[in-house]
Amino acid sequence: MRAMTYKNRRIEIAEVPMPVPGPGQLLVRTLACAVCASDHHYVDHPDVNAADKSGMRVDAPDCDVIMGHEFCAEIVDYGPDCQKTLPIGTRVTSIPVLMRPDEPARIVGYSPEAPGGYGEYFLLTEFLAREVPDTVPVEHIAVNDALAVGWFYSRAGMEQVAEQGTVHLVIGCGAIGASVVAGLKLRGAQKIIAADLSAERRAIARELGADVVVDPREESPFAAWRREAWGSPEEVHDRVRQIGLPTQVVYECAGVKGVLTDIAENCAAGAYVLSAGGSHVDEISSTVAHLKGLIIQWGGGPEFEDWYGCLDMILDGKLDPVLFIGETIGLDQLPDAFERARSSSAPLRIVWKADND
């Protein structure tokens, strides 16, 4: 089969063997797969992969690693010990985890043993696979994983505060930041501020429900937050003066070095900071975080309820993913698209579709 492989620190289209499903696994044919920034992190930070003690991702430079964990596919064959409740030809998707008997689970696309949707065929765990109807476009299904991340963080952020009038601040309006905005809006957040350098991404955030959008080159997002939440952009360092004022909730969705540092330095005392982006190489002063009494959540989602719950909303028409899909391509265009997706000027999601080949 053909696939975009990552081997010897190089990305290219290559012929590779067809994967063979093990016990409880499905062989599926890729219908659509989206390019995710997590794949850029996998390529750029092999030290992080090698340090993953869970075994869910591995650094295997001498092997063909086929990334791609945001997908829609159809069942082609079953491995041993499958229940076969879904017939061959069924269109499916799944939270991207490949279970292996007596072996560590793998994240789909982050090890040679768990090839992903950047190839023509890959493997899924049968009991995690969810049937999806033929009436929903495959590219809409493929971006569910990104939307589910935002659905998780919006839930976590809303659960942190009970005050009426809390203003939520989203830093970075790529696919994850945009999905956080969409999630907050669907959950009934009173006011959402979204900040990004890209005018196009700010416009998408506005369309998804942001009440205020900010270009950080023109105004500090934190000053904008204080104006909207507290009625004045003035900095307040005295925690006693903050008594009775709304708590700040900040979603870091940029994944760029320095953003978390900036948030810690400029956020309000007692803020809840949810790091969804994560640059892998940022620094936060523990003194600043301690003096401000910051609560920081590092990653953590999506949970199963968020992933499949978000999928249900797409299937039921309650969540429209169309704004997330900026471009569809064929497999041969994938290496170029993978590099272009690094840019802040790229669409929120570029999706390769089998019928584009």
UniProtKB/TrEMBL annotation:
One of its GO terms (molecular function) is L-threonine 3-dehydrogenase activity. Pfam families: ADH_N, ADH_zinc_N. It comes from the Bacteria. The keyword Acyltransferase does not apply. Keywords: Oxidoreductase. InterPro entries: ADH-like_C (IPR013149), ADH-like_N (IPR013154), GroES-like_sf (IPR011032), NAD(P)-bd_dom_sf (IPR036291). Residues 175-313 form the Alcohol dehydrogenase-like C-terminal domain. Residues 22-128 form the Alcohol dehydrogenase-like N-terminal domain. Its EC number is 1.1.1.103. It is an enzyme of class 1 (oxidoreductase). PANTHER family: ZINC-TYPE ALCOHOL DEHYDROGENASE-LIKE PROTEIN C1198.01, ZINC-TYPE ALCOHOL DEHYDROGENASE-LIKE PROTEIN C1198.01-RELATED. This is L-threonine 3-dehydrogenase. The gene is tdh.
